[in-house]
Amino acid sequence: MTIDIKLIKQLREQTSAGVADVREALEEASGDLKKAEELLRQKGFERAAKKGGRATGAGLIDAYIHQGRAGAIVEVLCETDFVARTSEFKTLTHELAMQVASMNPKDNPDLLKQEYIRDPSKTISDLIKETIAKLGENITVGRFSRFELGK
Questions:
Q1: Is residue 37 within 8 Å of 11, Cβ to Cβ?
Q2: Phi, psi at residue 64, to the nearest 5°?
Q3: 76 and 43 belong to one structural domain
Q4: Whole-angstrom Cα distance, residue 79 to residue 100?
């Protein structure tokens, strides 16, 4: 089956997956964009699982303050400083700080199973796995703390 280059470009922009992976997913999905995106997502989760045991010694700390009344500080770890400086990693770290500020998880396992505030169809664990698949390194949440005015 010949896949239209426009479909490949569109799916690549949506997922940040490699051209070969995008083409393969579209061929397997018979050109169905939604099905191909899900196939890429599953493939990314499989890759993320393989990276789970690797050490995470670099990373970032980010903070989020919501209207001066609640805030959070989060430590997110990865394998290298190179990945820690990418916009995708910085975005993930900030999103996790917002998640902690708004949802007040009690610990890491609670945070990982929460619905993502921007997209309830995913969990925080899914969000992290998607970023692992894009960046190719193991990513973990280190420590976090939430503060609320008067508490």
A1: yes
A2: -135, 130
A3: no
A4: 23
Tokens representing 105?
A: 């998880």
* CATH number (domain holding residue 117): 3.30.479.20
> Token pair for residue 16?
């940040």
What the block records as the tokens of 101 is 């500020």
**Residue of 55, 63, 53, 21 whose CA lies nearest to 40:** 21
Q: Is the pLDDT assigned to residue 111 strictly greater than 90?
A: yes
Q: How far apart are CA 102 and CA 7, in angstroms?
A: 37
| Main-chain phi, psi angles of 4, to 5 degrees | -65, 135
Average pLDDT over residues 109-134: 93
Burial pattern 92-110, b for ≥16 Cβ within 10 A else e, equals bbbbbbbbbbebebeeeee
Tens of pLDDT along 13-48?
777 677 777 778 778 887 778 887 777 777 766 665
Is the domain of 85 the same as that of 108?
Answer: yes
Q: Are residues 23 and 77 in the same domain?
A: no
CATH of the domain at 14: 1.10.8.10
Rounded to two decimals, the pTM is 0.71
